[in-house]
Amino acid sequence: MKIINLLILLLGIFSVISAFIALYRNPMSIRNRILVGLSLATGPLWGGSIILFLQTEDIIIERVAANLIYTAAILACLLTFYLTKFFSHKVSLKWYERIFLYIPSFFFFFEIWFTDDFILSIENKTPQFNYLYIIWLLWFFLVMGSRIAILGRDLRKLSVTDIERKQITYLIAGLVVSGIGMIPTNLILPYFGQYQYIWVGPIMGFLMIIILSYAVSTIRFYNIKTVFKSISSFFVSNILPSLIVGAISMLLLDVNMSIGYWLILSLISFISFLFINFFRTKLFKKEDPSSTLLEEMSTVLELDDIGREIINLMSEVLNAKQIEMYVLDEKKRSIFKSSAKEFLQESDFPVSEILSYSFSDKVKDRIAVIQELKYLQMSSENNGIEKEEALSLIRYMDKYGIQVIVPISLRDGYLAFIILSDKRGGEMYTADDLRFISKIKGDIKILLERSLLYEEVQEFNSVLQQKVDEQTKELQIKVKELEEARRKENDMIDIMGHELRTPATIVKLNAEMLRKYIDSNPEEYAKYLDRISKAIDTEIGLINTLLTSAKLEGNKVEIRREKVDIKESIEMSVHGNEKELKEGVKIDIEEGLPFAYADRIRVMEILDNLISNAVKYTDKGRIDIQARSKGENIEISVRDTGKGIPKEDIPKLGSKFYRANNYLGSKIVRPGGTGLGLYVTFRLVKLMGGKISVESEEGKGSTFTFTLPIYTNQKLDSTDTQDRFTRLGLK
Question: Would you state the pLDDT for residue 671?
């Protein structure tokens, strides 16, 4: 088999494969089915018939092969008419179109196979045509020319989408380019006896099928000018030099023209092509902008900077008039927007529609191109998008002049959208443009996620710094409070030292005075003994308070619950302070007051502290002591008519070393007292299951009220014969 016949066979197979690929992508499309039929007619049938005609030596087979060649041509003409007719929309043939197609076709079929009016005879591999060939030729030109003219008219229709316009353009280009090669070599020259170029027809048919398959199987087209420029550049810089090198090599080798000649030529040309392409790539390599995005922005972390750089790059490469970028959080709220010039209403952004289109179950991150949406709406190829959602998205994109929406899914449910308007030249976005967008989407995703993570870290640092500042301020306040407490404690220690030294000094001085009056003056002797007794009691009271305070601080206070006669305890405490009472005391105790369930020694300590304080702060007036049963408790109150306590100081009572009106600014204005009596009192009441409250008004006096549980046959703690001093740890 000659090399040209092998080439025709291979190209015929490839044309059928390309048509079946288009059918596989959309098996329901009627135009794809017609394209498969056209590929079979121009490939195996037409090409095979030409090979058979050129190869056979049998006269009958030669005539059959010639008849098949023109039968295939008629079928190709009919199928081309159908393909161009049903290309945009499925419509039926009009009656006059049926007459114009079917009657001449059947007539020519009959004449080709059953008469000599079409092919008169075959001489030396060259058919001799009769008058009917001219009529067939005119019909063929009329059919094909009318369809090309109608397609040209469709290009100017406003109802045709840009994608359909591109498809029609490629369809016309395929028919015209193939016709330029077919018409002279397969239709005109054969009539004049030039049949040696008949092999050009199947090759041009292969080219036509490839172009038509591309036109019907895609909705994203390459720019024809760019494609032509790339092919021309590739041919001139790679193919042509390789062929020249191969041809020169064959001339130098003086190889005879044969199949071996062509094989060696092809091999040398191919090796030359590899070397030329390698050096051309290395020396004239163009830097792809999509491959350098990550490298150039490796140190950029701010979202504003990233958005600006991405928009600048896309604007430069895609030549778009306007570009905007949005970032939405997991609740689909806009958290970032970057644009050179605002042209959208953010509140109208159709989030639900674009999510449905770009993030369906079948696809993810699908780019929304308005021309594709319009095309899918008008055709049966909806690709899973709902009509209403597509219409809503189309209306929005039309309203704001949006051509492309690029969705990018980010981490944690975040989303990004890049919005592109019309191109500056007014043309639609090509396959090269959309491929560039697809290539940089992954890099943009990485940059945006890195920036969002950086912002999260920055926000975390800010929150952490804020919390550190807040805690530092709180710590500073606590430090100041601690320093103030230490200062007060030091002051209290000075006061306590004074309080403890005073009774001891009195005891010492009065003991010395006793030596003088032991024999001579018994009355003076008794006076000094009374002072010594009083000083000793004061000293014991202070020591009791200190010991109890220390035990309370360490949670080591021992409470022995027993039946306590509150009336007796009040009377004993009053008796212990009666010498200090200036205007007396009024005791009001409920008749038949029940026993309290408490520690008798601790109850006495509480009463002593409260009555002692009332005496100390009452210059004029009396003290009222009242005891009543109230529910399950006994309520005891000690009321004085002294100086009273400021309202702001009442909540602080019961704090260790705290004394109302003890400070004025930073100076101690009243000595006396340790600030531990009320601290002990409040804690002891609470330990025995009671509550204590304070009511006071400056200049009118204060009332301290506390409660103790009533004895109702509860279990009593064991008692012993230890006296009060032993119980308090003084012995």
Answer: 40
Cβ–Cβ < 8 Å for 593, 627? yes
Lowest mean pLDDT among 77-91, 364-378, 380-394, 606-620: 380-394
Residue 439 is which amino acid?
Answer: K
In this structure, the number of other CB atoms found within 10 A of the CB of residue 692 comes to: 20
* Cα–Cα distance, 516 to 15 (Å, whole number): 144
Task: Please report, for residues 14, 39, 204, 343, 449, the alpha-carbon distance to residue 8 in angstroms, rounded to integers and kept in the order given.
Answer: 10, 13, 10, 55, 54
Q: What is residue 406's three-state secondary structure?
A: strand
Q: 529-532, long-range: CB within 8 Å, 24+ apart, which pairs?
A: 531/506, 532/506, 532/507
Q: What is the pLDDT of residues 443-458, one digit of tens each?
A: 888 888 888 888 888 8
Q: What is the pLDDT of residues 406-442, one digit of tens each?
A: 888 888 888 888 888 888 877 778 878 888 888 888 8
Phi, psi of 406 (to 5 degrees): -105, 105
Lowest mean pLDDT among 328-337, 344-353, 701-710: 344-353
The partner residues of 668 in beta bridges, in order of sequence, read 663
46 to 9, 13, 729: CA distances (angstroms): 10, 12, 126
SS3 content of the chain, % helix, strand, coil (to 5): 60, 10, 25
Mean pLDDT of 377-393: 61
User: In whole angstroms, what is the distance from residue 159 CA to residue 466 CA?
Assistant: 62
Residue 708: CB atoms within 10 Å: 25
74 conformational bin, left if phi > 0, alpha if psi -120 to 50, beta if neither: alpha
R_g of the chain, CA atoms, integer Å = 56
Supply the DSSP symbol for 691: -
How, if at all, do strands 368-369 and 667-668 pair? unpaired
* Closest by Cα among 681, 537, 499, 543 to 605: 681
Residue 531, amino acid: R
Secondary structure (3-state) at 457: helix
Q: Is the CB of residue 657 less than 8 Å from the CB of residue 492? A: yes
Q: Residue 730 and residue 540: Cα distance in Å, rounded?
A: 9
Number of other residues whose CB lies within 10 A of the CB of residue 419:
22
Indicate the SS3 state at residue 638. Answer: strand
pLDDT at 663: 41
CA distances from 306 to 318, 337, 435 (A): 18, 11, 21
Q: For residues 329 and 471, is the Cβ–Cβ distance under 8 A?
A: no
Give CA separation, 408 vs 8, 268, 326, 328, 548, in Å: 47, 48, 10, 10, 73
Give the total residue count for the chain. 731
Distances 415 to 325, 349, 442, 622 between C-alpha atoms, Å: 11, 13, 13, 80
**Separation CA 124–CA 59 (nearest Å):** 10
